[in-house]
Specification:
This is Alpha/beta hydrolase. GO terms for molecular function: hydrolase activity. InterPro entries: AB_hydrolase_1 (IPR000073), AB_hydrolase_fold (IPR029058). Pfam families: Abhydrolase_6. Keywords: Hydrolase. This protein has a six-stranded parallel β-sheet, with helices on both faces. The protein has a single domain, classed as 3-Layer(aba) Sandwich (Rossmann fold). It starts with 6 loop residues before the first strand and ends in a 6-residue tail after the last helix. Helices cover 39% and strands 13% of the residues. Strand 3, helix 2 and strand 4 form a beta-alpha-beta unit. By secondary structure, it is an alpha/beta fold.
């Protein structure tokens, strides 16, 4: 009897959706955990993660692949789904890995003063921060920024800067060596790929190979 196929649950980054995963080629079943509207701007991250986890069966062995802010949710969902294994792509496991400006925002509440529509209005600035070089990737980034809900962005940024982290959680990490948003990421990652914060698009083929290999290595042996 063949081993059961891998199951992947993909969680996109802040405000993004399934478009960032369009170039992945993975074995088995692939599901995108789409963002839910926060119930209020004060909804705790753990409460939100529990709502997101409702789409993941408790008894299912699976992979939670979180990109950027989605990595935070992958780690929180994994607290509720002990059979899940976590892969962080362009993400982080604790506040100590964030740039100094995030620490400043955490201490002062500076993030509350920044309009969530700022990056959509400055797409070329966003292009630099995300390390996007190809015009096709820039168009995708611009579309995602344009479609991002400001209320969700405001809630997510507040959760991001206040998150205490899960530094001891067992995870596999994939990070771009030129990531300007999370520059500390490569030193904590097992897989360092050329590129910026949007390697889920620019390095989709290599990330697909890494995830496929991880799934194959974790698969139980066939029962004869």
């Amino acid at each position: 009897m063949a081993p059961s196929a891998a199951v992947f649950y993909l969680i996109p980054g802040l405000g993004a959706d399934e478009r960032v995963f369009q170039f992945l080629r993975l074995p088995g079943a692939v599901h995108v955990l789409r963002w839910l509207p926060p119930q209020t701007l004060r909804e705790p991250l753990t409460h939100y993660a529990a709502r997101l986890a409702a789409a993941v069966p408790e008894e299912q062995m699976c992979w939670l692949v979180g990109v950027s802010f989605g990595g935070i949710l992958a780690l929180e969902v994994a607290q509720l789904r002990p059979l899940a294994r976590v892969v962080l792509v362009s993400s982080f496991a604790g506040p100590g890995e964030l740039p100094w400006v995030a620490g400043l925002a955490r201490a002062t509440g500076l993030h509350r003063l920044l309009p969530p529509q700022l990056l959509p209005r400055l797409p070329r600035v966003a292009q630099w921060f995300f390390g996007v070089k190809k015009e096709s990737e820039y168009r995708l980034l611009r579309q995602i920024l344009r479609d991002t809900d400001p209320d969700f962005t405001r809630w997510a940024i507040a959760q991001l800067v206040q998150w205490p982290g899960r530094p001891g959680a067992p995870v596999v990490r994939i990070h771009g060596t030129a990531d300007r948003l999370l520059p500390a990421g490569p030193m904590h990652s097992q897989h360092r790929l050329p590129g910026g914060h949007l390697i889920i698009v620019s390095q989709a083929a290599e990330i697909s190979r890494i995830l496929t290999r991880l799934a194959a290595e974790a698969a139980p042996p066939p029962i004869s």
